[in-house]
Amino acid sequence: MPVRQPRRRDVSLMLGLSLLLTPLMPATVAAKPHHHNHHHNHWNNRVDHRHRQPSWARQNWHHHRPWRHGWYGPGYVDRWGWWGPRAASWGIGSLATAALINSAVSSAIEAKQPTIVVPETSYWLDYGSVEVPSDNTVTFVVNRDGVNYRMRANCLSGQLNGHPPNDSSEAQLLNAACQVAFGAL
Question: I need a surface site. Which of 1, 63, 140, 156 has the fewest CB within 10 A?
Fold first, then answer.
């Protein structure tokens, strides 16, 4: 049987019906724009870690850090392109202050405790694991649920393991590590 070409009237009828029925079609039928998944698993680098007390971790520790420091502070958060929209979606307006983090580290050093609690989280930052491989980057070990993980943060761009934080706890972790490494008093 030969295939019949649609007539102009048939095409007009099909187009009219499709326009009429489109609002009634389920949303799953309509094409959806492609969105990148913004969730990144930062918790995939488990480490067997033993705390070591670095030479800078003593009274007035912030003056003894052997790398360039003092440039990181609250203004950097506003430079992170992801901060405004994500902070609003998380319902937070700011991250832990330098005074709070500095006090926690000073108290931990005095008490000979190897970690500090990252404010507003259940994470424990091993301040002695903080290393600075470049002017803007810090590596560190954090404990979550009894497991140690090595992470890297770019304090200038606000990236944790090369990606923005997924939630407010990860943002607090990024901020705490950056404050320990580069923060002013």
Answer: 1
